[in-house]
UniProtKB/TrEMBL annotation:
Pfam family, one: adh_short
One GO CC term, this protein: cytoplasm
UniProt protein name: Uncharacterized protein
Source domain of life: Eukaryota
Organism from which the protein derives: Periophthalmus magnuspinnatus
Length: 260
């Protein structure tokens, strides 16, 4: 029996991991397909950095809805939530993947308050506000599913994290990635995600974090160990296997627990 199509929202969907997520959801028979509607969000959907996303949307106009959303702008997030609600209606929204992020490459003694604030706005505060603004749509999807338990096919918030956010691994990873604002903001996002997961459990909405691996993207750099296809393929397999026991967990793209 085929699975019921799901609705998905992805932030930072114009390049890197976000663009690959969109591509695999609409062009492959993956673990999270079929998709009824995919809201591909980015700050400048009409700009040159979104040309790949625009091309995908032209190929799949019935599925991909490109939307303007700035993760650092609460007004933009609220407007996007209203637009999504007008499309999905009472069926709600099944999955939010908070993928948009910024990495400022500053070590400890070179980091500034402004750099820290910029990273916090996008990497930690953004996912919090997005979850708050879209909560009614997630609740509607959970209720509409009619199935017990928690899963990504029911209702879920997946926050893309990083091994660089791990306190437990900082001593061995810091000299490799001396990116203080990014690390600290992602560690804050982890705590926000755990707190959100506790709040969301009563509505049977799953919330957890995923480390995509060190990926060759604009953010990860050219020396990454994985390409975007490998990373996203792995993360989607993990997402499809998630249950209520994974609430608040930080897993990598292979499904392994990351200490944080």
């Amino acid at each position: 029996m085929s699975s019921k199509p799901i609705s998905v929202l992805i932030t930072g969907a114009n390049r890197g991991l976000g663009l690959e997520m969109v591509k695999q959801m609409v062009e492959t028979q993956g673990p999270l397909t079929p998709v009824s509607v995919l809201f591909a969000c980015c700050r400048d959907p009409g700009g040159p950095r979104a040309e790949g996303l625009q091309a995908l949307a032209k190929k799949h106009p019935d599925i991909i809805k490109i939307m303007c959303m700035d993760a650092a702008d609460p007004k933009s997030i609220k407007q996007a939530a209203q637009q999504v609600a007008s499309v999905v209606g009472k069926s709600g929204l099944n999955i939010i993947i908070n993928n948009a992020a910024i990495a400022i490459r500053s070590p400890f003694f070179e980091s500034t308050p402004e750099e820290m604030q910029n990273c916090f706005n996008i990497n930690a505060i953004g996912p919090m506000v997005i979850t708050q603004e879209f909560i009614s749509l997630l609740r509607a999807a959970a209720k509409d599913s009619g199935t017990p338990g928690m899963s990504c096919r029911k209702a879920a918030v997946i926050n893309i994290s990083t091994i660089a956010s791990s306190n437990g691994l900082a001593n061995e990873t810091y000299n490799k990635w001396r990116v203080l604002p990014y690390r600290v903001s992602k560690a804050a996002m982890n705590m926000m995600s755990v707190c959100a997961s506790v709040e969301l459990q009563k509505d049977e909405i799953l919330c957890m974090m995923l480390h995509p691996g060190w990926v060759r993207t604009d953010l990860g750099g050219p020396e990454g160990e994985l390409d975007t296809h490998e990373s996203v393929e792995g993360m989607f397999r993990v997402m499809n296997s998630l249950t209520e026991k994974h609430c608040g967990a930080l897993l990598n793209w292979k499904g392994e627990t990351v200490p944080w």
